[in-house]
Write a structure and sequence with these properties.
Blueprint lengths: L4 H6 L2 E2 L2 H5 L3 E6 L4 H15 L3 E8 L12 H19 L6 E6 L12 H15 L3 E5 L6 H14 L8 E5 L3 H4 L13 E5 L4 H9 L2 H4 L14 H5 L5 E5 L12 H10 L10 H13 L5 E7 L5 H6 L3 E8 L2 H10 L6 E5 L11 E7 L7 H14 E12 L10 H9 L4 E7 L3 E7 L3
Parallel strand pairs: 1-7, 2-3, 2-5, 3-4, 5-6, 9-10, 9-12, 10-11, 12-13
Antiparallel strand pairs: 7-8, 13-15, 14-15
Helix pairs in contact: 3-8, 4-8, 5-6
Length: 440
């Protein structure tokens, strides 16, 4: 079966620049020397340019690409490792950021095979040490046993890293050339992403060519030895790199009530709302961003212990404040015990969204706790509950947090696509703030 590369790529959506800006640590798992340059040579340059720390793990020794008397397996492995160092140097990665696991090329242990658990323990230790926010790994069914084993290795190692949930991007290599029908990914909308790398092509091509044992006749005593053809390299030098962020590999369910109750039971103010200078400045900016006027009826989604609630209460005649945590609400009620115009309700969104109408809704540091599906449902509820000319104020932390299903930027992009007028927005090094208005 011939894989329809054009149809595959046509479904891709662009990688969001804001997401990449949140990535401070990235790990690339490469089964063979050259996979790193082919699959993500452009991405590597972009990440390094923005200050991201990038590490690479080579899972095999690359010793089986040729049957050569001049370069027997040990020498071939050393040659290819040196070529990889040169390639990474072309891309800007220090050799100290490369680590080799030395599994035998074309015989890397797969799940259930001898040696797999030892590799899994090793990767577990490396993941625990580095905690990359973004991991690049071959596509689960890429048609090469080492590529599939490397994918299996990652999932095995991740199971044992507590409280850690990186974003996983799968990259295709042999899918383009050797796919059978059963190998072809069945992707949902938005799961295939592309990165425009036209500005990084020169160094990427130089890095690929650094793998001379794979791109030239350097090894000339094995006519049947592997060589990257011009057509094969063309899959990766067309100005775009393609990655799959599949939902089944990147689970993003809404955080549960138990998650928050555990936080509040171990710390009465887990985010230091009462004492943090960051929170104080952000709250002041939030109040200042609300358009002038006295609001008749307002809703605060995710009021926590009521610090912002207290400030919002002066802007409206009646305020409904809701939170999923009963422990947090108890403290908020005590803080506001003399405020008759403030009502508290316990519940999470979207399931417990109040069936009322509001002329002001504030959602601060809440949206990224939701799955994309629940966020879209909440967006619809917010729109329907806003009165004509009603105002929505949103504020979210923009750094990567492993526990959270979404990033702050993903939350705000979702609302940028809503049927709301964007009044104003601002961004600091740590959060973004946007104000919307409903117009009929």
């Amino acid at each position: 079966m011939i894989f329809d590369k054009k149809a595959f790529r046509s479904s891709a959506t662009g990688v969001e620049e804001e997401f990449l800006l949140t990535i401070k640590r990235c790990l690339i798992l490469a089964p063979h020397p050259d996979d790193e340059s082919l699959a993500c040579g452009g991405l590597i340059q972009l990440l390094l340019q923005q200050g991201t720390e990038v590490r690479v793990i080579l899972t095999t020794d690359g010793s089986q690409s040729h049957r050569s008397a001049t370069y027997p397996p040990d020498q071939l492995a050393a040659l290819r490792y040196g070529e990889m160092i040169t390639a990474l140097d072309c891309l800007g990665i220090d050799p100290q950021q490369l680590k080799g696991y030395q599994s035998k090329d074309s015989a890397m242990p797969a799940k259930g095979e001898p040696g797999f658990e030892i590799l899994s323990e090793r990767l577990h230790a490396d993941l625990s040490d580095f905690l990359p926010q973004l991991i690049l790994v071959p596509y689960e069914l890429d048609p090469h046993r080492d590529h599939r084993a490397t994918f299996q290795l990652l999932l095995s190692a991740l199971k044992n890293v507590a409280n850690y949930k990186p974003v996983i991007w799968e990259y295709p290599i042999w899918l383009y050339e050797n796919a059978s029908e059963s190998d072809i990914p069945k992707l949902e909308a938005g799961e295939l992403k592309f990165l425009d790398i036209h500005g990084y092509l020169h160094k990427k091509e130089k890095a690929i060519q650094a793998h001379q044992s794979q791109t030239t006749q350097l090894i000339d005593d094995d006519p049947s030895g592997f060589r990257l053809t011009t057509e094969m390299m063309g899959n990766f030098l067309n100005g775009k790199e393609y990655f799959m962020q599949r939902n089944k590999i990147n689970p993003a369910g809404t955080l549960s009530k138990d998650y928050f109750e555990t936080l509040y039971s171990t710390h009465s103010d887990p985010w230091s709302f009462e004492t943090s200078a960051y929170e104080s400045h952000k709250y002041a900016a939030t109040i200042s961003a609300i358009p002038d006027g006295q609001y008749r009826k307002a809703l605060e989604i995710g009021c926590s212990i009521g610090v912002l609630t207290q400030m919002l209460s002066s802007k409206c005649d009646h305020l409904t404040a809701m939170d999923i945590s009963e422990i947090a609400l108890e403290k908020a009620r005590k803080r506001m015990k003399d405020q008759k115009a403030v009502a508290f309700i316990q519940g999470g969104i979207p399931a417990d969204f109040p069936d009322e109408s509001f002329d002001l809704i504030v959602m601060s540091e809440v949206g990224y706790y939701l799955s994309k599906e629940d966020l879209l449902a909440t967006r619809e509820l917010i729109f329907n509950s806003l009165l004509p000319d009603g105002v929505l104020v949103m504020v979210h932390w923009t750094h990567f947090v492993a526990d959270y299903p979404l990033s702050g930027d993903e939350v705000h992009h979702c609302f940028d696509q809503a049927k709301l007028k964007h009044l104003k927005g601002s961004r600091t090094a740590d959060y973004r703030l946007d104000v919307y208005k409903k117009q009929e």
